[in-house]
Amino acid sequence: MPLLRAQPTPAEIQAAVGQTIADLGAAFSGVLVNIGRRLGLYKAMAEIGVCTSEQLAKVTGVRERYVREWLNNQAAGGYVRYEPDGHRYSLPAAQAMVLAAEDSPVYMAPAFEVAAAFWLDEERILQTFRSGEGLGWHEHNERLFCGTEMFFRTGYRTHLVSEWLPALDGVVERLHAGARVADVGCGHGASTIVMARAFPMSEFVGIDYHADSIRTAGHRAREAGIDNLRFEVATAKAFGGRDFDLICFMDCLHDLGDPLGALLHARGALKSDGKVMLVEPYAGNAVEENLNPVGRLFYAASAMACTPNSLSQEVGLGLGAQAGEERLRRLAQQAGFSDLKLATRTPVNLVLEVLQ
Fold first, then answer.
1. 37 and 98 Cβ atoms separated by less than 8 Å
2. Using one digit for the tens of pLDDT, what is the confidence trace for 243-263?
3. Rounded (5°) CA angle 109-110-115
4. What residues does 279 pair with on adjacent strands?
5. 10-99 architecture in CATH?
6. I need a labelling partner for 66 at 20 to 30 A (CA). Which of 101, 233, 245, 264 fits?
7. How many CB atoms lie within 10 A of CB 12?
8. Treating both helix axes as pointing N-terminal to C-terminal, what angle do 10-38 and 111-120 enclose, rounded to 10 degrees?
9. pLDDT for 272-318, tens place per residue?
10. How confident is the model over 97-143, as pLDDT tens digits?
11. What is the DSSP string of 121-172?
């Protein structure tokens, strides 16, 4: 055993072991959540109610012996209820909203697809830790792209049109009348499509440097039958167009190597009375404000994806996913904007209006 600076008490050791076991249980079980989503096990439980492992296996076409182990894991984790009398299982309504109902405002199951991508990228991230170099978004395992799309789409579908855009002064009125909107860092176009569907009189362009994501975004738009939008392969500092009424950075400004350059470019592309909306991970302005479950989640995502992407690009500011409102305000002011204000927030997002 290596030398210790201080000898922990037995209670401290027990607490540390207990915390690690709990985290290992969550890590081991994450893949089973993903399997439950992909095999339709959660959806089936939500539909059929209380069931045995045999009944669930029959409905889903999955082998019963595997279903039984999956159910017991889910019951041990508190996701599923178990009734010893009759060996029956059920999915509580709240868990069904989080894990089974894709149209739920709190659907979170796809986040485990992101976790899978992070494990697959472990060796590459290990090297970035040693070298200090970056790893571009496009260099990650492709499961990250789809997992991020599915996970963020829940928030966009639930909040973007009904809460976030109305929180910006005068924006919804412009969108109904017919506005020009740029959605920077659009990925697979989830946010762009939500807005374009809601405001058919307006014109939208989704922008991302990742060509494969832009191709997927175009496919998503065609599937949805929406034609008041287009997608463009470009960086945040070089996208085309002028006189935009609104420029959005959805969960992406902190990922950029040069967020100041991106804001400078956005300022030049806006109408004189245009708006910039930043959607960023929820964060306080100091580390100690973020030492909680949400902060833990976003610091992990920042270490695995956000900061490596920033460090792979020009400037390489490495803002990080937990930048916080004050640091973002300073960036906006450096770019020539007058101020930045908190428009609204959710438990996992800050929605910020950048003022000219």
1. no
2. 999 999 999 999 999 999 999
3. 105
4. 250, 351
5. Orthogonal Bundle (1.10)
6. 101
7. 11
8. 110
9. 999 999 999 999 999 999 999 999 999 999 999 999 999 999 999 99
10. 999 999 999 999 999 999 999 999 999 999 999 999 999 999 999 99
11. THHHHHHHHHH-----GGGS-THHHHHHHHHHHHHIIIIIIIIIGGGSTTHH
* Locus of tokens 């070089």: 238
Residue 268 is which amino acid?
G
H-type alpha helices, 227-306: 259-269, 293-301
Report whether 152 contacts 122 (CB < 8 A): no
CA dist 7 → 11, 12, 16 (Å)? 12, 10, 13
Fold type of domain 111-355: Rossmann fold (3.40.50)
Question: How many beta carbons lie within 10 A of that of residue 229, not counting itself?
Answer: 23
DSSP state of 271: E
Closest CA to 304 of 176, 125, 169: 125
Domain ranges in the chain?
10-99, 111-355
- Count of other CB atoms within 10 angstroms of residue 14: 11
CA distances from 56 to 21, 45, 63, 86 (A): 29, 7, 9, 14
Same fold, 10-99 and 111-355: no
pTM of the model: 0.93
Rounded Cα distance, 107 and 104, in Å: 5
